[in-house]
Amino acid sequence: MLKHTLFTPGPTNVPPEVLQALGSPIVHHRAPDFEPIFQQAREGLQYVFRTQNPVVPLTSSGSGGMEAAVTSLLACGEKALSFEGGKFGERWGDICKAYGINVITHSVEWGTAATPEMVEKALKENPDAKAVFCTHCETSTGVLTDVEAIAKIVAKTDAVLVIDAVSSLGAEPLETDEWGVDVVVTGSQKALMLPPGMAFVSVSPKAEKMINQAKSTCFYFSLKAALKALAKNTTPWTGPVSMIVALNAAVDLLKKEGIENIWARHQRCAEAIRKGSEALGLSLFSKSPSNVVVALTVPAGVDAGKITKTMRDAFGMTITGGQEQLKGKIIRIAALGFVEEFDVLALIGALELSLIRQDHKCELGAGVAAALKSLNTSLSK
Amino acid sequence: MLKHTLFTPGPTNVPPEVLQALGSPIVHHRAPDFEPIFQQAREGLQYVFRTQNPVVPLTSSGSGGMEAAVTSLLACGEKALSFEGGKFGERWGDICKAYGINVITHSVEWGTAATPEMVEKALKENPDAKAVFCTHCETSTGVLTDVEAIAKIVAKTDAVLVIDAVSSLGAEPLETDEWGVDVVVTGSQKALMLPPGMAFVSVSPKAEKMINQAKSTCFYFSLKAALKALAKNTTPWTGPVSMIVALNAAVDLLKKEGIENIWARHQRCAEAIRKGSEALGLSLFSKSPSNVVVALTVPAGVDAGKITKTMRDAFGMTITGGQEQLKGKIIRIAALGFVEEFDVLALIGALELSLIRQDHKCELGAGVAAALKSLNTSLSK
Question: How far is A381 from chain B (nearest CA, A)?
Fold first, then answer.
């Protein structure tokens, strides 16, 4: 037997209760029996987004949610600022450029986070910028950005703050309303424990006003149309009813555990991964490490690609390697969504065996021992 | 017990085998074990599309597939022709206008189809038109358009023919390659017997050339990017892995029955609905009736809204009413996807009882008898 477990920053494992809900008979999206289901989904999304603002459900991947934010807020020629320190941060700039938006991209060294000071300086230099695009957890580098501090700065201006929380929402604290984040984008296949296929976008009153006044170019991804439909408890296009039924099942599980407890679990698991990996000679790539995904530089002489291959093919555990310039240099491990503390012990055990198969020198058991010590401490708190 | 059955033109009932596949554990979209699954899906789509051309899978509703076709082929200011005889036909024009495309819309009376002559005349008057947008089955009116004849005309020009087959693909004969249709768009939640959540777009070499040369404005829905990824057996964004696993299960069922047999079944079911309804005093709304959805004008004195309500609430069968100017005037019944001949008898029985509850004068049993006679003839062929 080879149990298959995803330790990837999305898609993630889906709990049996959610898979079962996904396989429920189809309800017609315009029939009255769908109304309470959709109402429940809207409220559930507000729970995980920590917001009283509307959260728009979209049938798309997370990138579609990002495009919805860009094209609903801004028209061709309008100015925006983006801060990019990885593959996903770059996506903001790419989408803006595709639609002719005058985006000023600020590169951040991969492995480090955009700072509030950088955002403040850029906004001072560009008082006509209408939007600031940032990444909460940069999935390609495992970096977490201080969204709370950045939100304070953007709030003082006329610009809106738009956060890619595709991988982080539900895993890292993100207080949409308390911090005053205007637009938060996430995807279904991460901490929400659903299959890929949906994006969700929260919209603050400040952002909604900008959306309603925008002379932007969009149709399918129009947040204006989606917000109008949402107020009538529906969607402009045929909604993915199976996914929405499954979302309700997933949010039931999230509520049962409690969102603060879920954030703490992700913290415990990520810390155990960090401690276990460091005991084996791997080092943290990120200087501002997130709990969504842990990016680890492999020791000299170790082939990162072989680790991921052995982990997957021999031990049934899927982790991911580096992307673009980090290919072959790092591995990325995520205890995201439906993963608990003892799954991490299994993971570190498999990582040890994968390293030893490459003749990497480490004391067998050092990784699992370090991970367990970390868990013992964090679980006693 | 109240069994719930959808007789709607999407979403449609999903077979248990497909629901079960949908609830399979998640496979990572970039891991090697997903490769054969995706390869199978690509081939399965070519089977139902009757094409050797690539068929792009998109995470979106059918409208997203339509937007992908428009924005991947045409740039702002370029000319296109659209033919619209209903709510969905109008969508082509709406999408074009949202992106600044110079679309010349040709209105067709609701209930009738665009003719090859209309297309020929419009193309002669607009030799610079780059694309012709048509609807195969107009879901709002139950009208079928002669795509084969229109394709012959468009093929003689430099323009590409783009067909909305969102509701019709798999239910009505559509010979993508044999007829020479450049771009065909469909959705998952119709004859493909899947939940809503995906669109599929086939692309001919003529269309692919136009897409690759287009100076168009798109990102998420870029067919250029999708075709490039497809050639590497992948998707540009995270694909909806659960839906793709379910698609393979659905196509297995479709192949087992055989696409020609499926077309014939839809014909038999639609004809039985027409005959059964006519025997009850309803009349066909469409002058060019499709087998995807049957639009029926209700007799004077009968409340269309009450019929759909009784059918659904008392008998568990969901049918739909008219949209926009047809609201309250027609009902629409679809034996689409996972529906067989004897389901239609049940449906007509429920329709009879719903009519009688409104004191509509008809001989009880006349509808089911007429439907059964129709089925006896068609099943003996």
Answer: 33
